[in-house]
Design goal:
Layout: H1 3-22, E1 38-39, H2 42-48, E2 55-63, E3 65-66, E4 78-79, H3 83-103, E5 106-116, H4 124-134, E6 137-147, H5 154-162, E7 167-173, H6 177-182, H7 189-202, E8 206-213, H8 220-232, E9 237-242, H9 250-253, H10 260-279, E10 282-285, E11 288-291, H11 297-303, E12 316-319, E13 324-328, E14 334-339, H12 343-351, E15 357-363, H13 365-379, E16 381-385, H14 395-404, E17 407-412, E18 415-420, H15 425-428, H16 435-448, H17 454-459
Parallel strand pairs: 2-5, 2-12, 3-4, 5-6, 6-7, 7-8, 8-9
Antiparallel strand pairs: 1-15, 9-11, 10-11, 13-14, 14-15, 16-18, 17-18
Helix pairs in contact: 3-4, 5-7, 8-10
Length: about 450
């Protein structure tokens, strides 16, 4: 590896760490990274919004409050257990939605995702009722609701069915009572099983169950036992993901660091878990493993994370604290938006009939291509038809990864398939950043975060 490559890796490590500090969403998905976006300016936005495209959109609503904060959680959420606040926040979400419907001619919503936090603590009946009054919802739309086992009950699940929810995500994380205590997770296995079968009985078409691999106190045996338990229940999809010990988690803040042995066990959990899923008739699709149930193709389609893409959405409307959106402009640009994480600022803006955005970024066509490739990198495989679609500006990135031994290229006639190594995917995905974006990242690191040095990252075991 050359000295030039060494310098790039050092820069990528710093950018990745700054991601962990400043972006509480899907860390390796945001391109360009949020820390280089422009501060929101209402005057500039007023000019931009005149060019927003009309058509179909996706909707993401963020419900950032939980009854307690899980120690492994790296996403933006707040521990608040007040029903009055849950109702107040829901009303503000509806106000924000109305601002969008007054600004953009939205033909219909083709995908709806309620995430958190814990959305199922909130009065979702009120939210869904207003949603249906404000906007037309495509009858083929995938409607997702995230939940935790302890926040569900029969009446809530019955209500979801009434409002057309066709994908219920239950964040188990673990079924091991000892692990649950360590991660500050107030749930019981019996409660989960009861609510799972309630959802089956009521007729929620797709249930997605989530497990985390590599939690403190978790063993390979306990993780595989949990996975074996839920495989036997035959949910339509299962999501397993690695615990990331980032500075945003309580574990990290309490000085917990994963030892080399723990990291090795975590790797074995992921590898063995994926093998078990494949052998149990689950196929990999996006982030999830979906049950190959040919007898119900409709449910199989809804279970797929990319199901909504066939419905051709122009962008995503992001509602709520820290929510990220993508709005299409008539000139082909995409306006990336992120809302404030300050609840008082959020409320004040909406009371004044102003969007509660904190930052925006106008993404051009080249950024869109790079974002697509970065997403493909995360999933391990990039398929493109024809050599011409490898834009010349991506050639240096491909050559770099070949030198690193991170890719394998298979050529058959005019079709090309690139296979990426999964090692260091979060760090190496930065090779697809444009020179302009890398330069801005480096400038911000030097001017605003001089303390993030290579030696500092080594001391964090990052």
């Amino acid at each position: 590896m050359s000295k030039k490559d060494d310098k790039l890796i050092e820069l990528f490590r710093k950018i990745t760490y700054l991601h962990f500090l400043t972006d509480y969403s899907s860390i390796d998905f945001q391109y360009p990274p949020i820390f280089i976006w422009d501060e929101f300016n209402n005057e500039r936005f007023t000019k931009i919004k005149k060019n927003l495209s009309s058509g179909n959109y996706l909707l993401y609503a963020h419900f950032p409050f939980c009854q307690s904060k899980c120690k492994f959680c790296r996403l933006f959420s707040l521990a608040v257990n007040k029903k009055q606040l849950y109702r107040e926040y829901t009303d503000f979400l509806i106000e924000e939605l109305r601002l969008y419907t007054e600004t953009i001619n939205i033909s219909s919503l083709v995908h709806i995702y309620l995430g958190g936090g814990t959305p199922t603590l909130f009065p979702l009946d009120i939210f869904f009722e207003s949603l249906h009054k404000c906007i037309q919802i495509n009858p083929m739309a995938q409607i997702n609701v995230e939940s935790t086992p302890e926040s569900l009950n029969y009446q809530k699940i019955k209500s979801f069915k009434k409002w057309g929810v066709n994908r219920l995500l239950i964040g188990l994380q673990s079924l091991d009572a000892r692990v649950l205590r360590l991660i500050n997770r107030p749930q019981q296995k019996s409660h989960f099983i009861k609510n799972y079968y309630f959802a089956k009985e009521i007729g929620i078409p797709v249930i997605n169950l989530e497990l985390v691999a590599g939690l403190p106190g978790q063993t390979l045996k306990s993780f595989l036992n949990d996975l074996n338990t839920i495989i036997k229940m035959k949910p339509e999809s299962i999501h397993i993901y690695r615990y990331l010990n980032t500075p945003a988690t309580i574990f990290y803040q309490e000085n917990y660091r994963q030892s080399p042995k723990e990291l090795q066990v975590q790797k074995e959990m992921m590898e063995e878990g994926k093998r078990m899923l494949r052998e149990s008739n689950y196929f990999y699709q996006g982030d999830d493993y979906c049950l190959d149930n040919k007898s119900n193709s409709r449910n199989q389609a809804i279970a797929r994370p990319d199901y909504f893409s066939s419905l051709k959405a122009l962008g995503t409307i992001g509602l709520g604290l820290s929510a990220i959106g993508s709005l299409s402009l008539n000139n082909g640009y995409l306006l990336k938006t992120v809302n404030t994480m300050d609840y008082e600022k959020y409320k004040e803006n909406l009371r004044r009939k102003k969007f509660p955005m904190a930052k925006i970024f106008l993404r051009n066509r080249e950024d869109k291509i790079r974002d697509f490739v970065i997403k493909c990198y995360r999933y391990g495989v990039l398929k493109r038809e024809g050599r011409k679609k490898y834009k010349i500006r991506l050639r240096p990135a491909i050559d770099y990864l070949k030198r690193q031994g991170k890719i394998k290229i298979q050529e058959q006639d005019k079709n090309i398939k690139i296979i990426f190594s999964p090692d260091n995917d979060i760090i190496h995905s930065k090779i697809f950043y444009s020179p302009k974006v890398l330069k801005k990242c480096q400038q911000i690191l030097e001017e605003q975060y001089p303390e993030i040095t290579s030696a500092y990252l080594d001391s964090l075991d990052f």
